[in-house]
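seq:
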Amino acid sequence: MTTTRISKSTILQACLIKQKLTIHDFEKEIHSLRGEITDHSETVSQGQRTGAERNEMLVRLEKELTFLKNELWVLENIDPELEHGQVQLGAVVITDQRTFFISTSVELVEVNSHCLFGISTKAPIFSSMRGKKAGEAFEHAGVRYLILDVY
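struct:
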């Protein structure tokens, strides 16, 4: 079975764009929520969040935003020119089931009509594949994956 190598630079760029867009959406939501919290002229009607609920939501969104920015930092520090012979941070892993980019939890990314899954080194599936090479197999959640290529 032949595998198609997609440029790691292109994959990384797609992941960076997706991460930056997600961060932008969170920043817009936080800005909007802060505006709601500081606007005291509003009266709470049914279906609207109370001040306490808004504050709680703001804290959750800010924590998630910090997480997303940390993940962006990880992406920005991956060297796309570095070739990997085994599964580790920065590697593209092509299996008989799907293709993974070991980076951050950007999940599904489409690059040149190929779907890839960005997974974090903290993801349980990474533990199953860490250090493996092309030709080796691993199992995760009852699914067996055969590694066709790692680069």
